[in-house]
């Protein structure tokens, strides 16, 4: 547990300080209510899973919570096991999101590598705007680079050559 706050403003400061993955909050609190607090932190921490534990089941609160992408909305009196299940689901969702982000980044690196290899080895790119092609795959350089690759056998890339090309990426 990263911390505990007793009102919405202190909760917001704690969230800004700790950058938590999961926040459990009530709706009605002194200084600032929980929904207002969530609204203020949501843009900065869009992946933070928020679980509301409240005694208020008014439609207006639930509707605002949905608009703020609240992960779960538990009504008091709440069983500790219900809270633990909700937190466990939030943990699982956070792990899945992070794993997905890693896979997407790895796919982007592989795509950039494939495009760079294609530019280096495929004669059909001659005369085309190489700068635009590199920009399309997210390779924007503030300076010009010259990459010279000399292969003994055009079908085989040595590990050293692969590492040099990867370092450009």
What would you say this structure looks like, in words?
This protein has 169 residues and is mainly alpha-helical. It has helices at 8-18, 34-42, 59-67, 80-121, 130-136, 159-168, and strands spanning 22-25, 49-54, 72-75. The protein has a three-stranded parallel beta sheet with strand order 1-2-3, covered by helices on one side. α1 (8-18) packs parallel to α2.
Write the layout of secondary structure elements.
Layout: H1 8-18, E1 22-25, H2 34-42, E2 49-54, H3 59-67, E3 72-75, H4 80-121, H5 130-136, H6 159-168
Parallel strand pairs: 1-2, 2-3
Quick recap:
By secondary structure, this protein is mainly α. The protein contains 6 helices and 3 strands.
Q: Unreliable segments (pLDDT under 50, ≥5 consecutive)?
A: none
Tell me the strand percentage band: 5-15%
- List the quaternary state of the chains: single chain
Protein structure class: mainly alpha
The strands making up the biggest β-sheet line up spatially as 1-2-3
Shape designation: elongated
């Amino acid at each position: 547990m990263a911390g505990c706050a007793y009102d919405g403003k202190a909760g917001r400061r704690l969230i800004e300080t700790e950058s938590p993955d999961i926040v459990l909050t009530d709706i009605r609190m002194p200084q600032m209510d929980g929904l207002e607090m969530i609204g203020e932190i949501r843009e900065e921490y869009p992946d933070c899973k928020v679980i509301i534990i409240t005694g208020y089941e008014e439609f207006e609160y639930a509707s605002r919570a949905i608009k703020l992408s609240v992960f779960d909305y538990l009504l008091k009196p709440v069983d500790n096991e219900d809270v633990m299940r909700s937190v466990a689901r939030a943990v699982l969702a956070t792990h899945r999101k992070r794993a997905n982000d890693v896979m997407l980044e790895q796919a982007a690196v592989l795509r950039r590598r494939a495009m760079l290899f294609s530019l280096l080895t495929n004669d059909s790119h001659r005369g085309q705007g190489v700068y635009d092609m590199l920009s399309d795959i997210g390779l924007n350089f503030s300076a010009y680079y010259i990459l010279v690759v000399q292969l003994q056998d055009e079908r085989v890339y040595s590990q050293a050559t692969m590492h040099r090309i990867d370092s450009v990426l």
